[in-house]
Amino acid sequence: MPLFRRPSSEPLWRDEFSISTADERYVSRRQFTKFLTLTSLAMFAGNLWILLRTWFYREPVYPTRPVARAGEIPVGGVKIFTYPEASEACLLIRTGQDSYVAYSQKCTHLSCAVYYSASRGRLECPCHDGAFSLADGSVLQGPPRRPLPRVVLERRGDELVATGIEVNRSVVA
Ligand code: FES
């Protein structure tokens, strides 16, 4: 069956809304060209958008800010602090005599506040039973698909200083 058909003397609406099933399969050359042109333009615009985004993307710059004094919290203890903005709550957990970890408190599923479960040794989200590893913030269970962003900590003398946020972009399948 031919793909193209010569223009007929029928009004356009009859061509577009044919009542004949056989006629519905025909595509006029003009329609086909229009479709190809619009599709190409859409793909060009999409690629241009991706190019511009890549071009103008800048790595975020995080402030360096003291979040706690070493020894301020006991082993197994937790401190809530904000970083990098005053509205972004984070959890600092002292996991050993000289070891600390810090994560964003915002669950990567639907943004509920996660908390540290000392009995299970992991971070848990009460909203939908999500759980994250204390070691690296990876997803242990529940609906979250992305790990918790980790706050990078440095020990400077007597202070624990936040210097950035590490976002692991791996997604749980
Ligand atoms: S919001 Fe945390 S598991 Fe759904």
Topology:
Layout lengths: L11 H5 L4 H4 L4 H28 L8 E5 L8 E5 L6 E6 L5 E5 L10 E3 L4 E4 L4 E4 L5 E3 L8 E7 L2 E8 L7
Antiparallel strand pairs: 1-10, 2-3, 3-4, 5-6, 6-7, 7-8, 9-10
Outline the structure in words.
- The chain is α+β, with helices and mostly antiparallel strands and 173 residues long.
- The protein has two domains: 12-55; 65-166, Rieske [2Fe-2S] iron-sulphur domain (Rieske Iron-sulfur Protein), CATH 2.102.10.10.
- Helix content is 21%, strand content 29%.
- The protein is built from three helices and ten strands, in the order H-H-H-E-E-E-E-E-E-E-E-E-E.
- The strands form three sheets. The protein has a four-stranded antiparallel β-sheet with strand order 5-6-7-8, with no helix packed on it.
- Strand 2 (78-82) and strand 3 (89-94) form a beta hairpin.
- The radius of gyration is 28 Å and the shape is elongated.
- The mean pLDDT is 89.
- The chain binds FE2/S2 (inorganic) cluster.
- FE2/S2 (inorganic) cluster binds at residues 107, 109-110, 112, 125, 127-128, 130, 142-144.
